[in-house]
Design brief:
By secondary structure, the protein is an alpha/beta fold. It has helices spanning 2-20, 36-47, 59-66, 77-89, 101-107, 128-140, 157-167, 189-195, 206-215, 217-220, 231-262, 266-274, 295-308, 314-338, 362-372, 385-391, 401-405, 418-421, 425-431, 446-451, and strands spanning 28-32, 51-55, 95-98, 110-113, 145-149, 175-179, 198-203, 225-229, 343-347, 376-380, 396-397, 410-413, 436-439, 455-458. Helix 5 crosses helix 6 (128-140) and helix 11 packs parallel to helix 14 (314-338).
């Protein structure tokens, strides 16, 4: 008798647990903004099974996306796009692109805001695109929506968005605001989306937060961690995360400067530091300073937010100052290495490898410095040339690293592209006019440079 009671209890428990387990539900989602964040988010959500429409006011960009032409270079993204588009062609509605923002707001249940929030001259996040998007939403809400903030925004923006919609006449019962910041690294964004460290969700309405969590159920079931918190904590987690990562980069670059003075090896120092689990070995690679769209913008925005709240951002303010000082140290060494030389070869234009993003790249500071001194500049980058041409059309852009190096008096390595790591120093010595290298990424071992009679400067690796 006890056996039957046990079996019955077990069966009922199993049914109860099964009922409690969240079940993946395909959602109709509109992603507003087809920049870096919007595209990766939209394509990624389509890949895991949702009905996605990516919208943008840029008609040319949308037309290109409809033809599988992605406006950014991000490894693996097109490989996710094409299968999703094929599903669309088979009437499964997996992924679409459109310019009709008003229609898509009306037609979808969940609205992701993924528009740009660039840094203003004062260091604040520029929220004009957010405000324009909220205006579009206010004009088109007729049924219940979840509005999910994916753009990187200062603390309090989601609360402000809610009040903005209410002031524009939207019934507060018709929408919930959810914060869902992105943690994508350029160059590894697809991997970060599918196998990232965590999903952060901020909400006032717990059921809305749970619904956004369940969007990512395939990823969570695969081991991705998640945290549901309030709106402000979610927003701040994004800024605080980038702040600490920028701190690690700035710190190791300062240690690298010290290594150059005391004949220590910064790579060995970083390895030794990274062995401590409390520190970890990521973001301890010395280089020409942090760049890209996130770290400079987010550290300045965090500083501005603290100032707004009557707090002195001692550490945050120092991060950006240290980064700019480190860039100047490298520029000074380059100017010393040039002396009376004229021809400079720049290898790498993007702020990091595996992206075409040149925003806040050290190459920009370098080219400006060299042009002021009337130097002859030849440059090569596997992906960043077209973007840099928009800023510096008078630079000679080459189609190979060998073309850039030929007859150079000085070679400056800016970006850690794999093809630069395999550069043959013997060939390099034969092509250049003066054997002089400034290696801001420590690609080459000093003993190899010495063996080929190069004069060199690197970042803390004697």
């Amino acid at each position: 008798m006890r056996y039957y009671i046990f079996c019955a209890t077990l069966l009922l428990s199993s049914k109860f647990l099964a009922q409690q387990q969240p079940v993946f539900k395909k959602e109709k989602i509109c992603v507003i903004g087809t920049g870096y964040v919007g595209l990766v988010t939209g394509i990624g959500l389509a890949h895991i099974g949702h009905d996605i429409t990516c919208v943008d006011i840029d008609a040319k960009k949308i037309a290109n996306l409809k033809n599988n032409i992605i406006p950014i270079y991000e490894p693996g993204l097109k490989e996710l796009l094409i299968p999703a588009v094929k599903k669309r062609d088979n009437s499964k509605q997996s992924l679409r692109f459109n310019t009709s923002i008003d229609h898509e707001i009306q037609a979808n249940d969940i609205i992701y805001i993924a528009v740009g929030t660039p840094m203003s001259d004062e260091g604040h996040a520029d929220l004009r695109a957010i405000e324009a998007t909220l205006n579009n939403i206010a004009k088109n809400i007729t049924t219940k929506k979840i509005i999910c903030m994916k753009s990187t925004v200062p603390v309090g923006t989601c609360a402000h968005a809610k009040q903005t919609l209410i002031k524009k006449g939207v019934n507060p019962l018709l929408f919930d605001i959810v914060s869902n910041p992105e943690f994508l690294k350029e160059g590894t964004a697809v991997e970060d989306f599918l196998h990232g460290d965590r999903i952060i969700i901020g909400c006032e309405n717990k059921s809305a937060g749970e619904r956004i969590k369940n969007l990512y159920l395939p990823l969570i079931n695969n081991g991705m961690k998640y945290l549901i918190t309030n709106l402000e904590s979610s927003e701040l987690t994004k800024y605080a995360s980038n702040g600490i990562l920028a701190t690690k980069i700035a710190f190791i670059n300062e240690i690298a400067q010290l290594c150059n003075k005391v004949h220590a090896n910064v790579q060995d120092v970083a390895t030794g530091m990274g062995m401590d689990k409390r520190i970890g070995n990521k973001f301890l690679n010395p280089g020409p300073g942090f760049g890209g769209s996130c770290f400079p913008k987010d550290t300045k925005a965090l500083e501005a937010t603290m100032k707004k709240n009557n707090l002195d951002a001692h550490i945050v303010r120092t991060i950006f100052k240290s980064n700019e000082q480190h860039k100047q140290v490298i520029l000074d060494r380059i100017n010393t290495a040039l002396e009376n030389k004229e021809n400079v070869a720049i290898l790498g234009l993007t702020f990091k490898a595996n992206t075409d993003d040149i925003r806040y790249s050290f190459a920009i500071d370098l080219i400006e410095n060299l042009q002021k001194k009337n130097k002859n500049i030849k440059a090569y980058d596997p992906q960043g040339t077209d973007n840099m041409k928009q800023l510096f059309p008078n630079v000679t852009y080459c189609t190979s690293k060998e073309d850039a190096i030929k007859n150079a008096d000085l070679i400056v390595i800016v970006t850690e592209w794999d093809e630069f790591k395999t550069l043959d120093l013997k060939t390099c010595a034969e092509l250049c006019r003066t054997k002089c290298i400034v290696d801001t990424r420590n690609i080459f071992k000093p003993q190899e440079l010495k063996r080929h009679n190069f004069t060199y400067f690197n970042i803390g690796n004697m």
